[in-house]
Amino acid sequence: MHADLDRVLFREDEIARRLDTLASEITTDYMGKELTVLAILNGSLIFMADLLRRIPLPLELDCLRVRSYYDEMESSGQVSFDRSALPKLADRHVLLLDDILDSGQTLAAIVEAVREDVKPLSIRSCVLLRKIKTRARPIEADYVGFNIGDEFVVGYGLDYQERYRNLSVIGVLRKP
Ligand code: IMP
Ligand code: MG
Fold it and tell me: Which atom of ligand 1 is nearest to the CA of 103?
C-alpha cells in the first residue's frame, strides 16, 4: 500500500503528537459539560478511536454513517445519510467528528440536520484534516488537526475506493 503513495504527509508519531494537543483543547473546552461525540463513519473511525482515548471526560459516543459520492477524486456534492438515525441529544453538547473537510458539503448537511432535528445545546465540529481551498459550502470546523493543500490523501481512516483506510500514515496517493 505504501508503494501507492506519492509521498507521506504525516507519520504515525506526528499524528499522535497533534492528537495530544487537540484532545487537551477539547478536554478543557468541554470540562463540566454533557458532551456527546457524533462520529461520522467510516472515515473518522481510526481518528475517533485515537482521539477519544486521550479525552478523560465522561463523554458519550454516537456514530452516523454517511456516504459522500465521489467521481474518482472529486466530490459529486451528493451526501446521503439516514436522518431518522440521528440520536436524541437535545440536552447535550454535540461535537461532530469527521476525517476531512473538503468541499464542505458533508459537514454542512450534517450540521444543518442536527440543528433542525436534534436541537442540541450546542454543536461544534472537529476534523483531522482541512483542505485549504474555496469550498462549495462555506463552512469551517472548530477544531482542526492539520491543514493540507488541495490534494487527494489516504490512510489513517481515509480511503480511495474503500482502500487504504488501514494505512498508519497519511499520504498523497500517486496519480495513476
Ligand atoms: P466534503 O463533503 O467534500 O467536505 O468531503 C467530505 C468527505 O469526502 C470526507 O468525509 C471524506 O470521506 C471524503 N474526502 C474528501 N476529500 C478526501 C481525500 O482527500 N481523501 C479521501 N477522502 C476524501
Ligand atoms: Mg471516502
Answer: 3
